[in-house]
Amino acid sequence: MRKGDAQEIRRLNRRAILGHLRRGPLTRADLSRLTGLAKSAVSRLVEELLQEGLLEEGAATSPPLGRPGTLLHLRPRARFALGAELGVEGTVLLALDWRGEVLWAREWRHPPEAGPRERLARLLEEALPQAKNALGLGFTLPGVVVEGRLLLAPNLGWRELDLNPLLGDFPLPVLAENDAKASALSEVFRPPFDIPVAESEVLGGPMIEYSGMRWGFFFFAEYANMILVSALASIMFLGGWLPPIDSALFNWIPGWIWLGLKTFVLVTVFLWVRATFPRFRYDQIMRLGWKIFIPVTLVWLVVVGLWIQSPWNIWK
Known about the structure:
Largest sheet: 5 strands, mixed
Number of strands: 10
CATH superfamily of the largest domain: ATPase, nucleotide binding domain
Strand order of the largest sheet: 5-4-3-6-10
Distance between the termini: 74 Å
Oligomer: single chain
């Protein structure tokens, strides 16, 4: 095994341990059982995380069977990220822990004549005392930012400004971005702000919890459900095994072929929609169901009931 591969595996194992501990305190034996790692490997990784201050030991447990263990707790405030918004009238600086909770926030105003050097120097001056346990600093600007260069910020009166020399002395990674772009990416959960839907990062879901055939069964279930729904829709709405046209040319084809073709077309539509349209937000799904689908369904029930009672009834 190459050294890079071993380091990647070690990083993934550390991430798995931290992911399980995010849900609550666990013992080393629990982590070994949940992650599938050997107890010696879990102990070695836990000791590293304890030395780094990411974990802390709690009370001892006395299980009915087996040896007593010590509960391990995650320290969410051991590491945090710094974020700032450099606005026209002032700057806001805050810190977020692993759970996305605001640890502290500071805000100050700038004099109108303050230039980019003065404003960024004040930002780094406020952030520097908190840099010991911080992972990095990200800040937004009201302008066009491309690869560390501010091309244009009309509200600030800045143009063609290289930010890298102004940020070079800061001891942490620094990322600058346009404020509107950062807000839009965060709102729709697109990279690099797609943590709520990124299973490999939030350490949850079948991608992380299972492997092998247990992992594959989730995909079997997903596609089996699509095939089942498509087959039922073909039978109920598209004539099922009957040909689309009642003629000798189509009637000689077996019915199971027609059912398979109609099911295949509907499954293709499923795949097409998934690859074409973005994911709905939760509030959009609720609005679609409660404000559109349910009212339309109720109106359609009344329409069909009146249709059945009318002289134009086609179900007699």
